[in-house]
Amino acid sequence: MTPVVLEASAVAPFWEQLFQRYRVMGPKEKEPGFYVFDWLSGPGELVLDYVTTILPPKKAFFPPRDVLFRFEQGRNGTPPKVEPIFEQEPFLLVGVHPCDLAGIALLDWAFSQGHVDPHWWARREAATIIGVNCFPDEYCFCTSVGTCRPGGGYDLFLTPIEAGYFVEVGSEKGQRLLEAYAQRRPPEPNDFRDAERFWREKEERISRRLKTPAYALPLLLDASVESPVWERTAQRCYSCGSCTTVCPTCFCFDVVDELTLDLRKGERVRRWDSCQFLDFARVAGGQNFRGERVARTRHRWYRKFYYLMARYGRPFCTGCGRCARACTANIGLVEVLNELAEGGEP
User: Fold this and answer.
1) In this predicted model, what pLDDT tens digit does every residue of 177-232 receive, in sequence order?
2) Which among 191, 108, 110 is positioned nearest to 151, based on CA atoms?
3) Which of 54, 254, 259, 340 is in Cβ range 3.0-4.6 Å of 273 for a Cys bridge?
4) Is 90 exceeded by the pLDDT of residue 74?
């Protein structure tokens, strides 16, 4: 679809129109320097020039605590009541970076394998996604995993230019938003040059890089199962799960029933879980097939760059850098992979 330009004078009216008509989730400042995706009360809370958020926008479709259904015990011979819970009210998800668009696309795949997850897709179909270009920091390594530029997954995508925003249209839904609420104009040659300059300068700012091409990572890991790197990394790891909690592509969850005190009513809830927790791989009988920390630590790299990559054809990592930012032990995916590539020498 043909891109357009949203001039600076038209930006505020565009957001005002959208906030009047939709629920909007987007990045806002939680405290100085820290940003979160949250439901916004108005365009004044929306921050688009942020580096990263604490949690990825997957929370819009896969919340940390998600009620699947409610149930109530029957009385006097009546059958029990079960009420499935689906969130289908239309909403806008605004300010999504290319790496997080890639994360959503990967989870689209994950929640469509075998049993299609109806709760994920109810929210996905209700959403309109407006992406925005980003300002990387020293943790970002999206150029190494191919997520620096969006491969799709957005309805509109905004790149800052001198005139305002260069707007790429990714769907009919996005086109309808522009036609209904935006004062726009066709791009001129200098607008294309400005947008391309933003992309080029952004890529030049990214300094964190893998020494192994992404396509070769499964081969590297296949040859590194017994590397001493894993033991050294595990000795630093606290198994706290911060890395998986902030990851845009982790989708493991646990399911529990939460009951009222009279045990007659309750909710079935799924909650984010982590492969780094000690009890994650504990099964009936008490056996734990990843009871040692080194096994859990190694599993995270193999999950991102080997097991799922063999099925999907690309890393299950978007290069956003959240895991390294959140790690209190200063462990980074890139540094461990580069250490393996160098032969695992200390």
Assistant:
1) 999 999 999 999 999 999 999 999 999 999 999 999 999 999 999 999 999 999 99
2) 108
3) 254
4) no
3-state secondary structure the chain: CCCEEEEHHHHHHHHHHHHHHCEEEEEEEEECCEEEEEECCCHHHCCCCCCCCCCCHHHHCCCCEEEEEEEECCCCCCCCEEEECCCCCCEEEEEECHHHHHHHHHHHHHCCCCCCCHHHHHHHHHEEEEEECCCCCCCCCHHHHCCCCCCCCCCEEEEEECCEEEEEECCHHHHHHHHHHCCCECCCHHHHHHHHHHHHHHHHHCCCCCCCCHHHHHHHHHCCCCCHHHHHHHHHCCCCCHHHHCCCCCCCEEEEEEECCCCCEEEEEEEECCCCCCCCCECCCCCECCCCHHHHHHHHHHHHHHHHHHHHCCCCCCCCCHHHHHCCCCCCHHHHHHHHHCCCCC
Residue pair 323/247 in contact by the 8 Å Cβ criterion: yes
Evaluate if residue 346 carries a pLDDT over 80.
no
The residue behind tokens 């695992």 is: 344
Indicate if the alpha-carbon torsion angle 148, 152, 156, 162 is positive or negative. Answer: positive
Pick the closest to residue 94 from 122, 66, 127 (CA basis): 127
29-40 pLDDT, tens digit per residue, is: 999 999 999 999
